[in-house]
């Protein structure tokens, strides 16, 4: 019965890696869209390179810190819930070992084992490591791989920053007459790539994801550019 447990752990690790990768793609996507909207909006009001750089850097830092803080709080809450569930399971195993053994056997039976095989497997898993067996089968938790809030925070910070750098550099590096078009084209190309990547990671059709990303990004830049232009004309 050791091989299925190993395969299950391997599957969980793979799923966790895919989730982190998907989160990184989405973080980069957020960095691209939010920073592009900000700098394009400012570009509608002024063509001053210093103003564009200041606005872009401010948006990059604010967005990356916000993403990191949000992920840290969210994952810390998840980790606390996992630890609380493990503590409860540990107490139940200590106070009601027979009931927990029967529960584990029932869960294994629900997964397709016969009653006799499920009972035997539950007894063997309990003898080996009762808490680990219940954590994986009943709770879907690996006690050795609890979610890490610091990993989530840094991943969000880095992915958002990488995504935000593209529109920031695109708006400040080219000559004034090329800035807007270079930014729009590079941002839409990057959004098409992140849309395709997120779809592939989720085993979904790439076309709709790419279209949603590109249309959403174009709409965000169009609205902020129009607002910036109006504010610039009004002299606000």
Task: Set down the secondary structure blueprint.
Elements: H1 2-45, H2 49-95, H3 97-110, H4 115-139, H5 149-172, H6 179-201, H7 206-234
Helix pairs in contact: 1-2, 1-5, 1-6, 1-7, 2-3, 2-4, 2-5, 3-4, 5-6, 6-7
Name the overall outline.
elongated
Tell me how many strands there are. 0
Number of helices: 7
The biggest sheet, with number of strands, parallel, antiparallel or mixed sense and barrel status, is: none
Give the amount of beta strand, in percent: under 5%
The rounded Rg comes to: 25 Å
Q: Helix/strand/pairing class, anyone? A: mainly alpha
What separation lies between the terminal Cα atoms?
Answer: 71 Å
User: Which segments are poorly predicted (pLDDT under 50) over 5 or more consecutive residues?
Assistant: 1-12
Question: What is the chains' assembly state?
Answer: single chain
Mean pLDDT: 83
Number of domains: 1
Order of helices and strands: HHHHHHH
Helix content: over 70%
């Amino acid at each position: 019965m050791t091989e299925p447990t190993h395969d299950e752990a391997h599957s969980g690790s793979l799923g966790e890696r895919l989730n982190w990768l998907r989160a990184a793609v989405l973080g980069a996507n957020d960095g691209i869209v939010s920073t592009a909207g900000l700098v394009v909006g400012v570009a509608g009001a002024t063509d001053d390179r210093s103003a564009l750089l200041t606005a872009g850097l401010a948006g990059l830092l604010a967005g990356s810190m916000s993403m990191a803080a949000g992920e840290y709080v969210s994952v810390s809450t998840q980790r606390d819930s996992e630890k609380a569930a493990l503590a409860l399971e540990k107490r139940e195993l200590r106070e009601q070992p027979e009931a927990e053994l029967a529960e584990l056997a029932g869960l294994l039976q629900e997964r397709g084992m016969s009653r006799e095989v499920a009972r035997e497997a539950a007894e063997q898993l309990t003898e080996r490591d009762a808490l680990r067996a219940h954590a994986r089968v009943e709770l879907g938790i690996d006690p050795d791989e609890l979610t890490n809030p610091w990993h989530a925070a840094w991943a969000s910070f880095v992915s958002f920053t990488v995504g935000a750098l593209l529109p920031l550099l695109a708006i400040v590096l080219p000559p004034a007459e090329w800035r807007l078009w270079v930014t729009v084209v590079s941002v839409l190309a990057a959004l098409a790539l992140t849309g395709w990547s997120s779809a592939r990671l989720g085993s979904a059709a790439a076309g709709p994801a790419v279209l949603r990303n590109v249309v959403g990004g174009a709409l965000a830049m169009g609205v902020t550019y129009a607002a910036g232009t109006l504010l610039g004309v009004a002299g606000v």
